[in-house]
Amino acid sequence: MRTTSLQFSILVTTLFSAGDVGSDDYNMRLSQRRADSVVDHPSVTATVEGHTGNLQGTPEEAMDISRRGAQNVVNSLVDNFGVARSRLAVEGFGQTRRVAYNTSLEGQQENRRVNIIFNFQK
């Protein structure tokens, strides 16, 4: 008999204000719930993806900002909630994966985000 692992992902998105990386109380409560999902299930890993809109100076700057935002979320999960760093991966996508047009404040807000993708393996 052959066994295989079942893997699926749950996408969780956190939106941030310009220049913010989620340090407010609301985002800290959300981070606690996300951290619990990882800590309570030893086989769970997560990829933290940072994204920006097109308002940064260059695509390279946007990529750097998105990576730093994702890294700050990982650092928070590790430092504040005890998630093992080895179970978390960081990716920055800059402007490459916008979900809205940047022609409105709402669209710009939607593009400033960090996605946490949980990977559950059976």
- Describe the biggest sheet? 4 strands, mixed
CATH architecture level-2 label: 2-Layer Sandwich
The secondary-structure element order is: EHEHEHE
Helix count equals: 3
Tell me the CATH superfamily. Answer: OmpA-like domain
Q: In order across it, which strands form the biggest sheet?
A: 1-4-2-3
Radius of gyration: 15 Å
Give the overall pLDDT as a whole number.
Answer: 76
The percentage of residues in β strands lies in: 15-25%
Helix percentage: 25-40%
CATH domain topology:
60s Ribosomal Protein L30, Chain: A
Number of domains: 1
End-to-end span in angstroms?
A: 16 Å
Shape: elongated
Structural class: alpha+beta
Total beta-strand segments: 4
Please give the structural blueprint.
Layout lengths: L6 E9 L9 H15 L5 E7 L7 H23 L6 E5 L12 H7 L1 E9 L1
Parallel strand pairs: 2-3
Antiparallel strand pairs: 1-4, 2-4
List keywords for this structure.
single chain; 122 residues; alpha+beta; 60s Ribosomal Protein L30, Chain: A; 4-stranded mixed sheet; 3 helices; 4 strands; 37% helix; 25% strand
Description:
It is a single chain. The protein has 122 residues and is of the alpha+beta class. It has one domain: OmpA-like domain (60s Ribosomal Protein L30, Chain: A). The chain has helices at residues 25-39, 59-81, 105-111; strands spanning 7-15, 45-51, 88-92, 113-121. Strands 1-4-2-3 form a four-stranded mixed β-sheet. Strand 2 (45-51), helix 2 and strand 3 form a beta-alpha-beta unit. Helix 1 crosses helix 2 (59-81). The longest helix is centred in the middle third of the chain and has 23 residues, at 59-81. The chain is elongated, with a radius of gyration of 15 Å. The two termini are 16 Å apart.
